[in-house]
Amino acid sequence: MFDADKAREFIESSRNGDMKRLKELLDSGINVNIQDEVGATALTWASYCGDIEMVRELIQAGADMNIKDTKGKTALNYAKDNGHNDMIELLEKEKGR
Fold first, then answer.
1. For a Cys-Cys bond, which of 2, 13, 43, 71 suits 63, CB 3.0-4.6 Å?
2. For 39, which DSSP code?
3. Regarding the domain with residue range 4-95, which homologous superfamily does it belong to in the CATH classification?
4. pTM listed for this prediction
């Protein structure tokens, strides 16, 4: 069953760097690839914000790195746009697996 409040909370936890809440929601079975109103996923937001530990957690949880938002951008695009070099390296390495 889809829970819009939990979905919003999940996306917000990735935008705000709230790793504890993000893990709780992942443990509750939330869809790691849920998208917000602009098509962004938690991985997209964590990448945009430069939170490499959250990106690692989301990848480990099965986040799809190929999902594009309404601008046609992926998490890797946002890492590149914002100069998050360690994250670019991580995402490119994981994408190649």
1. 43
2. S
3. Ankyrin repeat-containing domain (1.25.40.20)
4. 0.93
- ∠ CA(39), CA(74), CA(41), 5° rounding? 40
**How crowded is residue 19: how many other Cβ atoms within 10 Å of its Cβ?**
15
CA atoms of 81 and 8, how far apart (whole Å): 24
Q: CA 54, CA 70: separation in Å to the nearest integer?
A: 22
CA distance 19 to 39: 21
The share of the chain scoring above pLDDT 70, in percent, equals 96
3-state secondary structure 44-82: HHHHHHCCHHHHHHHHHCCCCCCCCCCCCCCHHHHHHHC
Tokens at 87, concatenated: 């994250």
Per-residue confidence (pLDDT) for residue 2, from 0 to 100: 60
